[in-house]
């Protein structure tokens, strides 16, 4: 097995699905000979050519709208939107067309499309290159939203996303694109969309997170007292939410902390917290606590580390929730 | 009925000072006074040096991602020459620094901005510009709106908005052109056609022969010029500004230029661009031909060039020192800048930002302060 980083694992999944299924088309800004601004599509243009790897004009609405048409007519497009903050112009196409098509046509016109988007902060990037908009799309019925954090999960989930009959937004936490490597099988495999992963088992408290914050949670767990046993869950898919895994854990531990990089208000932490109290009320020993970004813009990079959730804040939440 | 032609159009191209420094007296005579040409040359040279220094700052870890302006200085300077600082507006993208400085933006703002500090966008009150716009091709609509506001106030102020060839692919570009035309706003669309949108060449960006012809669809006067020629740019801009000031509505100017550098410091154009193409454009550098023009008229010599180089170094050194000398912004500014009057819950988040759960333990940590102007 090869040891790959997130970029390489996603690249491998794309390459394998394109080789296996000629309906798979990659399109976006600079995805061709340049291999994408993060090099995620590197080598695909050389292998599959102009027809299947399209350097598009600079137009996000155009990229997604055209991909929707391709998907409606039997192709499996995998468009890339270069940065989270550039999803704006494509919002109408994603929410008002891709998400609605199956239901409004009662299944006659469907959109099997996978939109890849680098997401989140922490790379010292310009404005609008560091946002975390996953809750916006989780709140838009008709779309699945996936956010894997590790190379193994990314390869399996991207393969599932491309084969999924419905639109999927596939968020890639760019902060950990190259910072973490693990063994990734070269053989194809899938990880089901909507299935969370128990990263480490524990009995005293459950931490639920997704995206790059996973690594700050691991750090917080490492710093926790030895006699405390914490269960860490990587949600991996932010819609649909795997409540069975979360509820089973919270019923065991009685305590829950939810961690995400996005702003607090109407973030996915609110949804998960609500569902935990609905399903686990009589098991809860403490209020469900959220550790999140602020209800502010993601600051430009001089202050971005002040914004990002750190292990210290997660550790405080763990201690407070245990002591409640 | 036989078919008949219902619409016909053509696009004019203007070149006055060509790449060999040949000067067309018929169009260029008296267009820019000698001392203004000298000043323009000096401005372009200072901006070029700022660009080189900014590149080095990024490479040495003192600045984040920076988009070089190298090669496009004439389009910026040539257009700004027709504008009135403090009255006319600019709605920029990020490759026209020289124009912003001519409109009154202190140079260190640009560095401060790319150093990751929002105060680089805290435009001084006497400077009529919007902050640099990062999402490509979306800001030109603002130039239509700003122009409309000037129109109904019955001023003769105009608005120039800058954007690249790639930006003309965005839907918002077409909406801006349509709104400006329909509302007949005093907006000048300055297209810097620099041939590349990151790695995508213009031939893949559009199927049209020129960028200028896109304006025809909106019934907007349009022209193409040599964008590395301050005279040609000024010539076109003068016409457009005159039209806008006198209530004649918007205009479109395609400045054919070239991005001599990478897209930004995060890019490596060698991956996708033929070095021969770059070499050919190096010879068309706006600085080279402007210097030749001045030398041919005894307005410039080697001594002046040496003095200018030293002066540029001094200016840029001071600008860097000013930008780097500004303290890290107050963390509270993340919150305080959100609304004119921040909601109580945002204030609570500010005061408890170091706690686990925002606003839950307001007694734990207090952070005070407000956003300070630089």
Concise overview:
The complex is a heterodimer of chains A (324) and B (374). Chain A has helices at residues 6-20, 44-52, 60-72, 91-104, 134-138, 151-163, 213-223, 243-253, 268-280, 304-307, 311-323; strands spanning 2-5, 24-28, 53-55, 76-80, 114-119, 144-146, 168-173, 181-184, 197-200, 205-209, 230-234, 237-239, 256-263, 289-293. Chain A is α/β, with parallel strands linked by helices and 324 residues long.
Task: Please identify the top-level CATH class of the largest domain in chain A.
Answer: Alpha Beta
Task: Classify the helix fraction of chain A into a percent range.
Answer: 25-40%
Name of the top-level CATH class of the largest domain in chain B:
Alpha Beta
How would a textbook summarize the main sheet of chain B?
Answer: 6 strands, parallel
Q: Helix fraction of chain B?
A: 40-55%
For this structure, what is the CATH homologous superfamily of the largest domain in chain B? Thiamin diphosphate (ThDP)-binding fold, Pyr/PP domains
- The secondary-structure element order of chain B is EHHHEHHHEHEEEHEHEHHHHH
How large, in whole angstroms, is the Cα Rg of chain B?
22 Å
| Average pLDDT taken over every residue of chain B | 95
Domain tally of chain B: 2
Total count of domains of chain A: 2
The total strand number of chain A stands at: 14
Instruction: Based on the coordinates given, report the CATH architecture of the largest domain in chain A.
Output: 3-Layer(aba) Sandwich
